[in-house]
Amino acid sequence: MAELVANPPENCVGPSSEQAGKAASCAGCPNQNVCATAPKGPDPDLANMAERLNNIKHKLLVLSGKGGVGKSTFSAQLSFALAQTGAEVGLLDVDICGPSIPKMLGLEGEQIHSSNLGWSPVYVQENLGVMSVGFLLDSVSDAVIWRGPRKNALIKQFLMDVYWQGGLDFLVVDTPPGTSDEHLSISQYLKQAGDVGHAIIITTPQDVALIDVRKEINFCKKVGIPILGVVENMSAFVCPKCQKETAIFGSTSGGAEAMAKDMGVPFLGRIPLDPTIAKACDSGKSYVEDFPDSVATKQFLQVFKKILAAVNVQEIEYER
Fold first, then answer.
1. N or C terminus: fewer CB in 10 A for the chain?
2. Separation between Cα atoms, residue 111 and residue 132, nearest integer Å
């Protein structure tokens, strides 16, 4: 992959194209010489990537477009819950600059190990493995200051080199906010390897979040990622003691359900704002397992079951 010196223009043909550095859109671009001399033709790593990914039945991309809406929280709790069914689950953290998954899975301080089979995930339990750039850092406080090409190269390596003990029922992919480098890389690599997977869109009720989430939905439609549905996170505050709900974030446009209907995508449900969810994530625990009778757990399980039904997985049940 060519090391671009600046962000490419909107109509860029791509550094691997046969027209790279030669097309009319390349005129005046600071990357023109880099692209003109970059290797052309099919990526030789795609075959290895496809071989790895063919052993994964369902790929679930957790997306938003907006930061702070709870993508990592949802990804972590979804992974715990899927593993609770007995399924083989992998959680891939491609939030390169803000990897919070190691903390939420109780894996801070762990390191990646490699063998002749590839990179080994860090396991929370026998059927739940995790891979994150956080495992490559010397300290949890280290900043990852990388340009796009280096981020893309790491995501490619995650997809190509991680050995998920032979195969997975589910790979949950936690993504950063936005619709740029990481999102383009993961979607393009998955598509080139044969299966782009499905998207789960996370939002909060207020209009300022919904604006960016609409962009993410349009991104998925443009790059061809099927959308399983939208989840409204932090929909209302739930008192941990009395379990009563109180609306905190308002919306003048009807919230996530109205947005989903307007944009023609399914609405999966609402997850309330419960302080014990944050505590579970801080301690690397499964909220659903530790608080089986809470309002939030009931909502989580309803959403999770809709996700399973959407990918035609109906034969497994949650152990309670």
1. C
2. 10
- Give the pairing of strands 245-246 and 227-238: antiparallel
E strands present in the chain: 56-63, 89-93, 113-115, 118-120, 122-125, 128-132, 168-174, 198-203, 227-238, 245-246, 267-273
By the 10 Å C-beta count (0-12 exposed, 13-18 middle, 19+ buried), 320 is classed as exposed
Contact 132, 106 (CB under 8 A): no
The top-level CATH class assigned to 46-310 is: alpha beta
CB-based contacts of 262, cutoff 8 Å, min separation 6: none
List CB contacts of 18: < 8 A, sequence separation 6 or more: 40, 41
Question: What span, in angstroms and rounded, lies between the C-alpha atoms of 189 and 196?
Answer: 8
pTM exceeding the 0.90 threshold for the entire prediction: no
